[in-house]
Amino acid sequence: MQDANAMKPRLLLVEDDPASRAFMAAVIAQFPADVDTAGSVGAAATLATTRSYALWLFDSRLPDGSGIDLLIRLRKQGDTTPAVAHTASRDPDEHAALAQAGFLATLIKPFAAVELRDAIAAAIGPAPVALAPAAEPDPGSSVWDDESALAAMNGSQEHVTILRELFLSELPAQRDAVLGALDRGDNDAARDTLHRLKASCGFVGASRLKAAVERLDAAAADAAAAEFFADAVRRTLATSAS
């Protein structure tokens, strides 16, 4: 009998935000599928040219380029692997550009696990095994939306806990990057970090912080929005000691 693991497809996931990458990798593993991950165009190009994949999942914005840049680069080398994009942007022009570049679909972050699984299934076929039903979630709090986080992780409290620990470890540096950019008057740099943070907030159920991120993204020059963001970060980080 053929080993079941040998039948699993292998996917390449390209995502620079650690929490978002961990969430998506966990969902892909549950599909089930094997997954290789990269956080940049350069690292992804190396992986994509050294092994075969059933599907590519590319972030639209990366530190050293874009998902479109990466896809064009690989297509010029003759690789026809199907590709799906993911982005926190709702800009219709960006989505149109992704479709024109050849992405089969675009997922808007934060998305639920079922949306990612459905996109994978649409591109390469259905999952080879059925997924376990989601566990009954515990009530959420003002800082964390446990229900949405559990639903996103197919009811796995263990995965939620691991992702939140990773998220909290990255949060101070992201806060400092946002507030430092605002102090310099570099609103574009602040929004770039907010863009990534918004997605990871959604994946781990950081509901209060997500609202603060969205408010600051919409009004980067608003001092009250910046203070609301800093307070939301403080409240979120405080839960790690509780």
How would you explain this protein's 3D organization?
The protein is of the alpha/beta class. It has two domains: 4-124, 3-Layer(aba) Sandwich (Rossmann fold), CATH 3.40.50.2300; 146-241. It contains eleven helices and seven strands. It has helices at residues 4-7, 18-30, 41-48, 67-76, 92-101, 113-124, 146-152, 157-183, 187-204, 207-218, 223-238; strands at 10-14, 34-38, 55-59, 61-62, 65-66, 83-87, 106-108. A hairpin with a 2-residue loop joins strand 4 and strand 5 (65-66). The longest helix is centred in the C-terminal third of the chain and has 27 residues, at 157-183. The model is unreliable at 129-141 (pLDDT under 50).
For this structure, the quaternary state is single chain
Helix run count:
11
Shape: globular
CATH superfamily of the largest domain: Response regulator
Mean pLDDT: 88
Q: Distance between termini?
A: 49 Å
Summed up, the domain count is 2
GO molecular function: protein kinase activity
Domain HPt: 156-242
GO biological process, one term: phosphorelay signal transduction system
Keywords: Phosphoprotein, Two-component regulatory system
